[in-house]
Amino acid sequence: MIKVNYESPEVIQQKASDFLKKYHLDLTLPVPIEEIISFDMGIDIIPIQGLKAVAEKTGLDIDAFYSHQDDSISVDKFIYDKRQTRYRLTLAHEIGHKILHGYIYEEVGFKMTSEYVDFINAMSMKERAKAEWQAYEFARRILIPKESLFEEFKKALEGVQEDTELCYDTNPGEVEDLAIKYYLKNKYNLSEMPIRIRLENEGMIDKRREDE
Predict the structure, then answer these.
(1) What is the pLDDT along the chain (212 residues), one digit of tens a residue?
(2) Treating both helix axes as pointing N-terminal to C-terminal, what angle do 84-100 and 125-143 enclose, rounded to 10 degrees?
(3) 71 φ/ψ angles, rounded to the nearest 5 degrees
(4) Where are the extended beta strands (E) located within the chain?
């Protein structure tokens, strides 16, 4: 039975901050996650045609997987080629697995998609959900650094409020939505959802979703 250790948000934040201090100290945005992985960490990124489709046949919804055996990240080629914001989050997510779950990967070696599927299927749904949440939380915290988020959100709100075409008789919630859509998405080169989750978790905006 594969057991995933508990990692609190505070511990994940510390590990994310340590990661950025080591690989991206100046915190310029967007965080160049692909370059960090390829050049600074020396990890191969391998696009694989049909990876996602193969996994879906077994009931798994994955875009990529990290292999501890050869220190590589295999990623679905369509995501690699056509979905830049998703690709960036996917890479950061897999690095989250490497950093947070290395103790698990050390016991399991795999390079092929089928081997990864067997590895995932050996985990209970509870342990799998725990590992996925931790990896996504780490990914969001390195791509949307806490150190810059407050200031960037403040500037985004001010930008919306000064733009009469965007902000005309809108309520605070709508201003926040516009700030995310028209400013922060471009700043972080990510989709709206991970940015919204970060802002919610930092208490900068109210939570308006039922699920995390």
Answers:
(1) 778 889 999 999 999 999 999 999 999 999 999 999 999 999 999 999 998 888 788 777 889 988 887 889 999 999 999 999 999 999 999 999 999 987 877 766 655 666 666 776 777 889 888 999 999 999 999 999 998 999 999 999 999 888 767 766 667 788 899 999 999 999 999 999 999 999 999 999 988 754 44
(2) 120
(3) 50, 60
(4) 44-48, 64-67, 72-76
3-state secondary structure 124-164: CHHHHHHHHHHHHHHHHHHHCCHHHHHHHHHHHHHHHHHCC
CATH assignment of 9-143?
Answer: 1.10.10
Contacts of 204 (CB under 8 A, 6+ apart): 149, 150, 153
Alpha-carbon span 15 to 8, nearest angstrom: 11
- Whether the pTM exceeds 0.85: the reply is yes
**Tokens 């290395």, residue located:** 102
Q: Which residue has the tokens 């990864």?
A: 116
The ranges assigned to domains in the chain are 9-143, 147-201
Q: Residue 185 — φ and ψ, nearest 5°?
A: -55, -45
